[in-house]
Design goal:
Chains A, B: Residues 474-546 form the STAS domain. The structure is a homodimer. Chain A is an alpha/beta fold. Chain A is built from 25 helices and eleven strands. Chain A folds into two domains: 1-266 and 280-413, no CATH class; 453-567, STAS domain (Transcription Regulator spoIIAA).
Chain lengths: 599, 599
C-alpha cells in the first residue's frame, strides 16, 4: 500500500484511474478527440504566428496533455500552444537561419524552469498583482495585435507578419495594391462561416430531435477543423491542376515525430549586413532578456484564470504550477514552443463532457497520429484559412464590456487598463503590461502614502478641548508620516492651539521611519507648547517609538484621562482652564468624522 | 502698495529687508563669511571629486546663495556644491577633452529643470518614498565611496579618482608601493588636526573668559580654511625653493569670474581608441541617462532634510523646491555643477548666528572675491590637505547607530537599508538607492496584498453559528482578493460549514477587481450551499459590487439579523436548526480576535 501512496503523491493523476469506468473512457475519448480537432489547425496557425514552420505547433500540442493528465487536477484544462504566447515568442524568431526554432525552444525550457522556481519560491502569487483592468487591457491589445498580424495572410500579402501593431498596419496599407483576391475572398468567407458556426451552438431548437442537435453541436465545436479541411480540399483541387494557384498555401509540413533532444544552447543568426554570426548561450539569453520572466508570468496568469474558471478555489495553485512547468520543460525536449492552458480549447473540452484529465491523452494521441499520417496533406492548407481561424478566435478576446461599469463606479481604474492597452499596441505587450502593473502599484503606494485623516475638535467630559486626529488607514508607514505631520500642523492652524490626540486604535502597522517622524513631530509641537498624545497605541507602536526616539510621547486609553495627564506638566496648565464644561462623546466610528471626499 | 506686494510674491526674500537692522547685518555678515571660509576649501575639493578643475567648485558656490536669499524661507540653508552631488556628477566627467565641464554644467541645468517640474507637478513628495533605513544606507555608502576616492589624494598616488568603490580600492592596493610619504604624512596630520579641532567646540570651559571661548569657536568652525591655509603656506615655502616638492599640488586655478554663457549642448569626447568623437545633444542626454532623474531627487532629499531639521514643518516645500531649482538653472549659466543644500555648511551657518537668508549674499561675495583675488594662491594647496578636508567631513556621514534599535524593534527594515548600502558600493549609488526603494515598495505592496484576517466562529443571540472574517486592513484591493478567497475557503475547512460573515466595517478602500473576486467567491460558496454576508459594508463597496457583478451579495448591519435573512432562502434552512441557543457577543476590537503573529 505504501508504494501505491507514494506513486499517488508523485503522479497525482493516477488517482483518476481508480474506478475509471468504460463510460468515463468514452466521454474522455470524445472530448479528447474534439479538442484534438481544434488544436490541429490552431497549432499550425500559432506556429506560423510565432514565426516558425507549422509543424512546431503540433510538436507543442502533445506533451502538455500527457503531463497534465498525470499531474494536473482540473479535468477541463488543456495545455498547448496559444496565440498570446506565440505572439510573445515571435519577438525572438526573426533572426534568420535556423535560429528561430532554437530561440523558441530555449524560451520554452527557460519558461518551464522559471515556472518551477515560481512554484518553489511560492511566487505564483505574482499574478495577483495583475488587476482586472490591466488583464482586460492586455488581452484586448494582444487580440488586436494578433488580429492585425493575420491581415497579411488574409489579404494574400507575402512577407513576414511584421513586428508590432504599428509596423504591421503600415506594411498592410503600403501593400494594399498587392492584395490577392483569391486569398482574400477565401479568408473572408471562412471568417463569416466560422462566426456563423460559432452561433450555431446557441441556437434554440427545442423541437428538433437529438440527432440533429448533436450534429449541430459537433459542427459548431469542430468548425476550425471543418473550415481548414474544406478550404484545403478546394486548394488541392484548384492548385494541383494549374500553376496559377489562387491561394498562398502553408507549404511542406515536416512529417513524423520530433526528435527527442536537448534544446540548443547556441545558434547562428544572420546579422543586418547578411553575414552569419554565431550566438553562444550568453548571447541567446541576452536576446531573450525580460521575456524569460514576463512570458512565464503571462503563462501562469492564463493557466490560473482557466483553472479558476473551471475548477473553483479548491485547486492547489502549486500543483497547477508544477504541471505547467513540467509541460514546458519536457516539451522543450520535443521541440515545443512555450505552452500554457488554452482558454478556448479548455472550453471545448468542458463542453464536450470531459470527465478526467485523461482526455488529454487522447488529444495527444490524435496530434501524434496527425504528425505521422496527415502531415503531407497539411501543405495544401491555404494560409488565408489559418488566418481566418486565428482572427475569429481572438476577436472575442477584445473586451469592451468592462469599460461601462468601470466608468460608472471606479473611473480611476480605467487608467491602468488604458495605459496597458495603448502601450501594448504602441511599444509592445511586455512593456504595456509592466507599465499597467506599475500604474496600479503606484496607486497602491499613493494610498499608503496619503492616508485620509479624520480631524475633529472635541471636548472631554471635563470640558477640555482637544483635536482628535484619526487616520482612516490601518497602516502608518514611512511614506505617510510627513503627510500626517503636515496634516496635524494644518489642523492646529484651523482649530487653534489645543492638545492633539492621535487615535492609533486602528493603526496596526507602523515602522521605524514613521516613529522617527512622530518623534520629530512631538518635539516640534512641544516647542509650540502643544502636547501630543497617542490614543490606544498598540504595544508594537510603543516599542518602536521607544527604540527609535528619545522623545517621551504620552499615551492614553481614554480621552477623558487628558486632564490628569495635563496636570502633570506645568507647561500645559493653560489648557486646563476651561470656560464652560462641555459634555461631548467620542464618535463611534470613522463615518461620524469628516467624510472622505476622495472615494 | 500693490506693486510692493507683487514684488514680495515674486521675490519673497525682499521681506527680510523690512526692518533689517544694523545688528542683523552684522550677524549675517559674520555667518556669511564663516560659511564662505568653509565653502572655499570644500568647493575646490568637491570640484576635484567631481573630476573637474578646482575653479568649478567656486563657480558653483555663489549663485545659490544669491538665489536662496531672494526666494528661500529658511535662514540657515546654504546652497552650493556637496560631496554627494559631486560624486554623482563624477560619473559623467571622465570622457576626456573639454567634455567634463560640459556634462557637469548640462546636468546642473537639467537638474534645475527637473526640480522645477517636480515643483509644478507637486512631485516633491517623491522623497517620502525614501525611508530612513534607505537614507542611512545611501549616505553611509556615499561616505565610504567618497572617503575611499580620496585615499589616492591622501597617499599621493597620481591618476584619476577611479570609478566606484571596488575599482578605487583595487587601484589603491595595486599602487601601495608608490605611496608618497610627504603627501601621506601631511594628509594624515591634517585629518588628525581637523578631527581634534572639531572636538574643540564641545570643550566645556566654564571658567575661561569670553574671548578665549570665541577664539576656540572660530578656530573650530574655520578649521577647514585654517588647515588648507597652513598646508598651502608649508607647500609654498618648500616647493618654491626646490624642484623636489614633497607634495602634489592643486595646480593652476583659473582666475576671474566665470563667463555668463549658455550651457553647451554638444561636446567632443575621446573614444576608447583615442579618436575624437563628437557628441550632440541626444548623445549627451543618453550619457546622462537616469542621473537626470535621480540626481535631482537626491538633491531635493538633501534640501528637504536640511530645511526640516532647521526650519520645522512651517516651511513651504514648493517654495524651497523652486529656490533649489532656480539655483541650479541660473548656476548652469555661470558654469556651476549641480548644487543643493549642504548640511555641514548649514550647520555652520546656524552656529554662526545667521539671522536671515541674506547671509548667503555675503558668502557669495566672499567667493567672488576669492575668484578674483585669491585664485593665484590656490595652486599651492596640497591635494592631500583637500583630501583630508573631504575625508574628515564625510566620515561622520557613516551611521551605524541606527542599526541597533532597528535590530531590536523592526528587523525587516534592516533589509532595504542593507540592500541600499551593499548595492551602492558594489554597483553604484543610483542603483543602490533604486533597489532600496524598490525593496521598501515591494514590502508595502506585500502588506496590501496579504491582509491579516481575523477568523472566529461565533453565534448570534438566537444561537445560529457563523464564521466571522475580519480583515485587519482598511483596504481590500486587487492583490488581496485571492488571498481573502482562499482564507475563507480554509476557514470553512477548519470550522465546518456555516454562514460566512465578512466584516467590512473598517474596509474603506475597495476596487473593481476585488469586487469581481468577491462575486466569484459568492458564486462558489453558493454552489457549496454556504451563504455569504457582508457586515456593515459602506455604500461605495455596495455600488462597486453591484456594477461589477450580477451576483446578489447580501449585506447586514448586525450579525443578529442573520436569522431573518437565512429564513428567506430555502436552501439555507438547515443553518437555522440550532441545538442549544447560545449567547455570545461580537468581539469589541480586533485585538479580541486571533492575534496577528506576523507583527
Amino acid at each position: 500500500m505504501k508504494s501505491v501512496q507514494f506513486a499517488y503523491r508523485l503522479l497525482p493523476g493516477l488517482k483518476w484511474l481508480k474506478g475509471y469506468t468504460g463510460q468515463d473512457a468514452v466521454s474522455d475519448l470524445i472530448a479528447g478527440v474534439t479538442v484534438g480537432l481544434t488544436v490541429l489547425p490552431q497549432g499550425l496557425a500559432y506556429a506560423t504566428l510565432a514565426g516558425l514552420d507549422p509543424q512546431y505547433g503540433l510538436y507543442s500540442a502533445f506533451v502538455g496533455g500527457i503531463i497534465y493528465a498525470l499531474i494536473g487536477s482540473c479535468r477541463q484544462v488543456t495545455i498547448g500552444p496559444t496565440a498570446l504566447l506565440a505572439l510573445m515568442t515571435s519577438r525572438h524568431t526573426g533572426f534568420g537561419l535556423e535560429s528561430g526554432p532554437a530561440y523558441a525552444i530555449l524560451l520554452c525550457l527557460i519558461s518551464g524552469i522559471v515556472e518551477m522556481l515560481m512554484a518553489v519560491l511560492r511566487l505564483g502569487a505574482l499574478v495577483d498583482l495583475i488587476s482586472l483592468p490591466v488583464t482586460v487591457g492586455f488581452t484586448s491589445a494582444t487580440a488586436v495585435i494578433i488580429g492585425t498580424s493575420q491581415l497579411k495572410g488574409l489579404l494574400g500579402l507575402r512577407g513576414g507578419s511584421g513586428s508590432g501593431f504599428v509596423n504591421t498596419m503600415k506594411s498592410v496599407f503600403l501593400n494594399l495594391d498587392k492584395v490577392r483576391y483569391g486569398d482574400f475572398s477565401l479568408g473572408l468567407a471562412a471568417i463569416v462561416i466560422l462566426l456563423l458556426l460559432r452561433k450555431l451552438k446557441d441556437l434554440k431548437l427545442s423541437n428538433a430531435n437529438k440527432f440533429v442537435k448533436s450534429f449541430l453541436w459537433i459542427v459548431a465545436t469542430g468548425r476550425n477543423a471543418l473550415i481548414v479541411l474544406i478550404s484545403s480540399v478546394i486548394a488541392y483541387k484548384t492548385c494541383q491542376s494549374s500553376d496559377n494557384c489562387p491561394f498562398i498555401l502553408t507549404g511542406k509540413v515536416k512529417s513524423g515525430l520530433p526528435d527527442m533532444q536537448l534544446p540548443k544552447f547556441e545558434t547562428d543568426i544572420l546579422s543586418s549586413n547578411g553575414t552569419e554570426v554565431h550566438q553562444n548561450y550568453a548571447n541567446m539569453l541576452g536576446e531573450l532578456g525580460p521575456s524569460m520572466i514576463i512570458l512565464p508570468i503571462i503563462a501562469v496568469l492564463g493557466n490560473v484564470a482557466i483553472s479558476k474558471a473551471f475548477g473553483g478555489a479548491g485547486l492547489s495553485p502549486t500543483r497547477e504550477l508544477v504541471a505547467l512547468s513540467l509541460s514546458n520543460i519536457c516539451g522543450a525536449f520535443f521541440s515545443s514552443i512555450p505552452v500554457t492552458g488554452s482558454f478556448s480549447r479548455s472550453a471545448v473540452n468542458h463542453a464536450s463532457g470531459v470527465r478526467t484529465p485523461i482526455g488529454g491523452f487522447y488529444t495527444s494521441a490524435l496530434v501524434l497520429l496527425a504528425l505521422g499520417l496527415l502531415a503531407p496533406y497539411f501543405q495544401y492548407i491555404p494560409k488565408a484559412s489559418l488566418s481566418a481561424v486565428i482572427i475569429s478566435a481572438v476577436i472575442f478576446m477584445i473586451e469592451f464590456e468592462v469599460i461601462k461599469p468601470l466608468w460608472r463606479c471606479s473611473r480611476r481604474e480605467l487608467l491602468p487598463g488604458a495605459i496597458t492597452f495603448i502601450m501594448s499596441l504602441a511599444i509592445g505587450v511586455e512593456i504595456g503590461l509592466l507599465l499597467g502593473v506599475g500604474t496600479d502599484v503606484a496607486f497602491l503606494v499613493y494610498r499608503v502614502a496619503r492616508p485620509v485623516l479624520g480631524v475633529s475638535k472635541l471636548s472631554t467630559t471635563h470640558g477640555i478641548s482637544y483635536i482628535l486626529i484619526r487616520p482612516k488607514h490601518s497602516s502608518l508607514y514611512f511614506p505617510a508620516i510627513e503627510w500626517v505631520r503636515s496634516g496635524i500642523s494644518k489642523s492646529l492652524e484651523t482649530h487653534g492651539s489645543a492638545p492633539v490626540i492621535l487615535d492609533c486604535s486602528n493603526v496596526h502597522e507602523f515602522d521605524f521611519t514613521a516613529a522617527r517622524g512622530m518623534g520629530a513631530l512631538n518635539k516640534e509641537l512641544s516647542s509650540m507648547n502643544v502636547p501630543l498624545f497617542l490614543l490606544k497605541a498598540s504595544k508594537e507602536i510603543i516599542v518602536i517609538l521607544k527604540e527609535s526616539t528619545n522623545a517621551d510621547i504620552h499615551t492614553l486609553d481614554n480621552p477623558d484621562d487628558l486632564e490628569s495627564l495635563l496636570e502633570q506638566v506645568p507647561d500645559y496648565e493653560p489648557y486646563l482652564q476651561v470656560m464652560v464644561p462641555l459634555v461631548t462623546k467620542l464618535p463611534n466610528s470613522y463615518t461620524d468624522l469628516e467624510h472622505d471626499k476622495r472615494n
